[in-house]
């Protein structure tokens, strides 16, 4: 019992503080004055604590998944998250960002297993932007010669349009805060050996990743490469009123539907043309026997020619019955012109040569033998001579 009491007495004793003599105390002397030109030493700290939550939804294909993996490799300040279920709303990403201590988010949304949409969002107060990703080429697919240090900080280069167009100015700030690696990030390297270019062309944003080879500006592409087609910009994170909407945007599903419809129209037009051709196909062949009988008939050549011309005139009149009044007047004028030619071009006495005469249309001097009636008369005479020779 005595030993036990001694231990209790030792525990109950108060602690005694050691007294340090004044001679051993360290004296700290502060400067009485400081010059204004002196540079205040600053501690290098990780001040810009931007963290980006990178995730995707179910339904993306293998190429889109590799694109997301490439973006993770070039962004050391990202945070991973498993796939998001389809039945969940996009507002859940805000809660996931709070749990992961992230203030930015990149969400890949797949539709129809062939269309890819990308969301860039500021998880705290917004805004958020929706893009359609086109022309995707990953690092493994390109196999470019460029190579750089993993985790190095990039330079972000923007087109001149990003400082002129209002909605591009907003997207520029959102892209800068999302893709820019913070200074003195624990997972980053203190080097700048790459550059991201964002070019605005054809109402789209073209992304390229290059390695800086030398100080003179020599570059080598690394990858990945893709095109962002902006669709909408919302006031809040994944929700809110639309601040801007692309009027030239056409969804890929609608574009494919228009292509199928155009192919369908080609088939319909081809079948209609075929049916129209068969319906308007002539059933009767032109009868040349009547003209042949008139040509080889015995009689005066003038009478034969007049009969042929009258028959042609009658055929023209029959065809022009259903036409408009203007066309009928034109045909009557042509008939009158032919009759005048017949009267003027009557053959003279035998032994006389054909007299030169002016054409009433062009005013040129022509021979009577060059007219329609004269040619027909000459042809009939030749055929009669040939037939008489054959008979002999």
Automatic annotation (TrEMBL):
Positions with biased composition (Basic and acidic residues): 20-36
Role, per record: Required for biogenesis of the 60S ribosomal subunit.
Keywords recorded for this protein, A-Z: Coiled coil, Nucleus, Ribosome biogenesis
A GO BP entry: rRNA processing
Organism name: Polypedilum vanderplanki
SUPFAM superfamilies per the UniProt record, alphabetical: Class II aaRS ABD-related
Family: Belongs to the BRX1 family.
Cellular component terms (Gene Ontology): nucleolus
One GO MF term attached to the UniProt entry: rRNA binding
Compartments where located: Nucleus, Nucleolus
Name of this chain's protein: Ribosome biogenesis protein BRX1 homolog
PANTHER family linked to this entry: RIBOSOME BIOGENESIS PROTEIN BRIX, RIBOSOME BIOGENESIS PROTEIN BRX1 HOMOLOG
Coiled-coil regions listed: 305-332
Domain of life: Eukaryota
Chain ranges of the Brix domain: 50-239
Residue segments, region Disordered: 1-36
Main location: nucleus
InterPro entries found in the cross-reference section: Brix, BRX1
Ranges of biased composition (kind: Basic residues): 1-13
